[in-house]
Amino acid sequence: MTDQEQFLAAASLLLGERGLTCDPELLQPWLTDWRGRFSGQAMALASPATTAEVSALMKLCAKFAVPVVPQGGNSGMSGGATPDESGHAILLSLRRMNAIRRLDPAAREITCEAGVILQTLHEAAAVENLRFPLTLGGKGSATIGGLISTNAGGTQVLRHGSMRAQVLGIEAVLADGSVFDALVPLKKDNRGFDLKQLLIGSEGTLGIVTAATLRLLPALADRAVLWAGLESVTAARSLLLHSEKIAGDALEGFEIMPRHSLAAVLAHVPGSRSPLQGAHEWNVLIELAADAAGADALPNLAQTLLETAFEAGLVEDATIAANDAQAEQFWLLRDEIAPAERALGPAVQHDISVPVARMAEFVAAAVPDVESRFPSTRAVAFGHLGDGNVHFHVLAPAGAVRGEWEATDGKAISAFVHDLVTQWGGSISAEHGIGQLKRDELGRLGDPVQLAMMRAVKHALDPGDLLNPGKLVPPCT
Amino acid sequence: MTDQEQFLAAASLLLGERGLTCDPELLQPWLTDWRGRFSGQAMALASPATTAEVSALMKLCAKFAVPVVPQGGNSGMSGGATPDESGHAILLSLRRMNAIRRLDPAAREITCEAGVILQTLHEAAAVENLRFPLTLGGKGSATIGGLISTNAGGTQVLRHGSMRAQVLGIEAVLADGSVFDALVPLKKDNRGFDLKQLLIGSEGTLGIVTAATLRLLPALADRAVLWAGLESVTAARSLLLHSEKIAGDALEGFEIMPRHSLAAVLAHVPGSRSPLQGAHEWNVLIELAADAAGADALPNLAQTLLETAFEAGLVEDATIAANDAQAEQFWLLRDEIAPAERALGPAVQHDISVPVARMAEFVAAAVPDVESRFPSTRAVAFGHLGDGNVHFHVLAPAGAVRGEWEATDGKAISAFVHDLVTQWGGSISAEHGIGQLKRDELGRLGDPVQLAMMRAVKHALDPGDLLNPGKLVPPCT
């Protein structure tokens, strides 16, 4: 038997029929990322049912030097869960490990296995009149393991932080198959390095997250959604500071979108209409939210916010959603920007952040910078102003050929945008991660000291480079 | 010239007269920790004035293989800033680096050098009607660098988290002298491993923190302090859950103390008196606090909390401090427990945590466990119930000799307590860190997988073991 045959025989014995397959038809759906931008090969698909099985499998992989590509819902944005072309790796699906091990409503803690889907977590929390505050578009497929491994963001980060802030404890399998067991949540623990922080956001390159304990919050009892029109991102930033002052912890979301994006959405979504009478250079969506303790005060708070914003001359026009259906319509206008822009033609998208205080200045400078350097393109920034995180899209000139344009001009534009962001002290990946999509850009633009630290830590914890090779950590040049 | 002479000559040239001294009189105060429990020797005291100087000095140390013991206010609890007896190391004081580099009131961010004293930070924030939410007894000497390196706690952790939660960005010098520059705060950044998390709480073993960007909060506008008497820690836990439900984010502190501790304080502090008429097995101090946005609602909230707690039978008796002077008196009773217990005779103290949900059960079991295993001792637990963190003191039998008892029986008791805590899934260091005090206990009781990870990371980032050797990271056995 070859080494590969020996490995597969042992893995098959370990995991059984449900746990291991080499059937190309069964592998096929998982070898390409959901947006169809990356695809690869794998020698097998492993679907262990327990942490002990993941551990034993990893020991086997270490023995036979077989690389492992962990995968959750396969809904990542950066190709972090797609294997390379070599076919040397196994694809390790965590989807079978989907038990909720424990839910403690009094302590507001839930312990989930890695394969639990975000929507399932939301539903489990809701049963106890609690909520898990992180949510995003892919909630129907994204898994807890994937969300932790990518430190996922979403629209609620402003108030509640990204996935990192929700994680109280972690269980993970390391490169040698040993189990890192730090699931028990201690609010205070000062026994040295906080190793779980290393695993969060490491995209499976340092360990395979198998379970986590997450914090829950009291369920929302009420929300108020405001829409404002104003003249600039600078004005939007003033409105943000004002909203923080008036609404404090009730401020749950603060999204901006330019005139062009709103027009694109209105043209794209049948029956949609603008919340305001006239058109404005910039639009802001503000969400205030409160649990039972603060719900009574919320309508007044929203009204006060609106009135004081008018008085202070912070908005050109503004309105409050009259009911929940209208609030949903406001959010739909925000959520449909990406599809609406895509319908207009080819585009390259950038998930970037700069310091919140510099965001207005950045957008004001970067948009004309890009448009003048690449004639006939249109640059559009929208998204999470409160987090200093905008999605920066550059739309192709009319007549550009989809597929071709992104691979040529689009690539040059992305490099230009990443250069700009780096000059502004920002990040080339605010929330989507690095994966294989941005690994080389991180190598090109990352701080050499931090890259050296990353490589040293990666080598220390995975000396054989078995965990998700080719992702995240740029090689030495 | 010997190597040491060459090193000192080069360091002296680099740092100048104010920056380097070998004068034993100038060194002496810093060679012993403030509680006099650890002392050591150093070949020199370096006091660089800038990050560039720290970097150049560290390069020199790397070249000559000179170990470095970083020191802030020398107010740590675990001997983490005291050199060993060999005299091979230099003591690196960060106290001269005490500039506030930037304060941005709108963004609520402050960038401090490592030597800024906590109280100075509090005062700088107050000028802008802001506050830094972490505070502790040593605030007049503790420095930002030390607080970050030890991930310090305090009485406000319940609401605001420990030091880790306040840090937005870090600047640090690594073992090879390179500068880790991640001071610019990005609310969202997913470019791989969050390396600053490794430096926080690493007690100077992975890098020397030279500056940090910290978050600030709106200043407090009002507070309400409640005192309750009840029968058990279980009852206190019910009151905690009730308080979280009623007061939500306004709940700022929740401290417990047993009858014995209160009696000791009342005997120890002249003129002090109990807030309640009768004596109760357990006492609880609750602090509610609000900024300007929530101040109006606070008195009602406190009243509601009190009334509903009575109605639900959660307290035997309770009262609200009538004014700020009385609130201070309530807090004094809590803050004087440690000195009052010390006045009673020798004792060993343990800074431990267990999962919040298990704290009541732990105290109920551990106190008789210890007292029956070590006859005539008295075990006392008090402190931060809301964080699952109690200070667990064991008082010596009458007649025990101070100094002698701690080193013999006291040591056996500590090992017993640490064993217990470990069995309960807790931490042998909730907030004071490991330093040299608990390094061997961590080696004895720590999870072997996590110890191996710590050693691997330490070796990867400091292969010459130059950064604070002998602290925190237990050697292989």
From TrEMBL, chains A, B:
The lineage of its organism: Bacteria, Pseudomonadati, Pseudomonadota, Alphaproteobacteria, Sphingomonadales. Residues 38-219 form the FAD-binding PCMH-type domain. Belongs to the FAD-binding oxidoreductase/transferase type 4 family. InterPro entries: FAD-bd_oxidored_4_C, FAD-bd_PCMH, FAD-bd_PCMH-like_sf, FAD-bd_PCMH_sub1, FAD-bd_PCMH_sub2, FAD-linked_Oxase-like_C, FAD-oxidored/transferase_4, Oxid_FAD_bind_N. This is FAD-binding oxidoreductase. Keywords: FAD, Flavoprotein. It comes from Croceibacterium selenioxidans. Pfam families: FAD-oxidase_C, FAD_binding_4. It comes from the Bacteria.
